[in-house]
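Repro:
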Amino acid sequence: MDETLKGRIMGLDFGSKTVGVAVTDELGMTAQGVCIIRRERANKLRSTMRELDGLVQKFRPVLIVLGLPLNMDGSSGFRVEATKAFGEKVAERFGIPVHYTDERLSTVEAIEIMDESDISKEDRYLYVDKIAAVIILERYLQGKN
């Protein structure tokens, strides 16, 4: 990332059923979960993009960090290709650079955080993707420093 960019960074955890969203503070130092966009169909992005429109207008990010779901051995699969295609559409639609960062085990880490917070297994779907987006964004911020 260009170190001269100043402003919020948005983190996305893109999945076939949801997109977890997180943003940094205006100094780009801390990440907070924002929401989970629930997707009706894996291959339809119209309503997902409409919801992202509102979030981009609200937070005005200068960069979007998108979690890349690599296989445990570091190889790419179908989900990586789908994520990159989504990232290209996001970059084109909003005119904001998209950076990809390794998201391996972010969901496992999110579940561990929920376990420590005593969030019931029945309620995890309410939080897991938003927490994973925060983890993805924090990993990016740690790698940047």
